[in-house]
Amino acid sequence: MQATARLKYLMMSPRKVRRVVTLVKGKSVDEALSILKFTNKAAAAPLAKTIQSATANALAVEGTSRIKAEDLSIALIQVDEGPRAKRIRFRAMGRVFRYKKRFAHLTVVVEGDPQVEAPSKKQRATKKKDVQDTVKPAKEAGSKAKAAAKKKTTKKAVKKPAAKKTAAKKTAAPKADAKTKKAKSGDADEGEK
Fold it and tell me: End-to-end CA distance of the chain, in Å?
């Protein structure tokens, strides 16, 4: 497994960058980063960042469960020449000296072997269940749909008679009230006589 990171248009001459690259070529990522940390050259910082970026790319592709940063090593570091910016420097007696600012393109490739883990018993069991759940016969799916439709219709049927009973109670209640009022008023009339 390999992962790549590129740094383009580094404002440094390729010759200066190559001097630092020779220190870390072929080393493991941890060892290379520790060497660059204590290297007193300007090219050490961008080179370290590019190595870290390549490492992060490798971990993102494979996943941290399959590969660790300690297992990676530098397979290739390539420093190419970029464009040259033409500049001038003013000198005495109205003369001008020309010089070029060089750029470099940096490519880092890291590689490592991912660890292939056998799935545990629990993972295997869940995978079997998932497969069984996803593969269902058409008859079972149709019968479940029919059962769901029956449940919906039975709920509606239950609601309608209940509504009728409450309506009947509402209409019956005023009649009963009128009878009780007459009976009470009749008792009151008899008590007055």
Answer: 112
Question: For 137, what's the count of Cα atoms within 13 Å in the CB-facing half-sphere?
Answer: 3
Contact 15, 70 (CB under 8 A): no
The pLDDT tens digits of the residues spanning 76-93 come to 999 999 999 999 999 999
- 3-state class (DSSP) for residue 101: strand
Q: Kindly calculate the radius of gyration of the chain based on its CA atoms and give it in whole angstroms.
A: 43
**Per-residue three-class SS string for the chain:** CEEEEEEEEECCCHHHHHHHHHHHCCCEHHHHHHHHHCCCCCCHHHHHHHHHHHHHHHHHHHCCCCCCHHHCEEEEEEEEEEEEEEEEEECHHHCEEEEEEEEEEEEEEEECCCCCCCCCHHHHHHHHHHHHHHCCCHHHHHHHHHHHHHHHHHHHHHHHHHHHHHHHHHHHHHHHHHHHHHHHHHHHHHHHC
The CATH code belonging to domain 2-111 is 3.90.470.10
Q: Which of 89, 117, 105, 85 is nearest to 17 (CA)?
A: 105
What are the pLDDT digits (tens) for 104-137?
999 999 998 877 665 565 555 555 555 555 555 5
Domain regions of the chain by residue span: 2-111, 121-192
What pLDDT was estimated at residue 84?
A: 96
Amino acid at 96: V
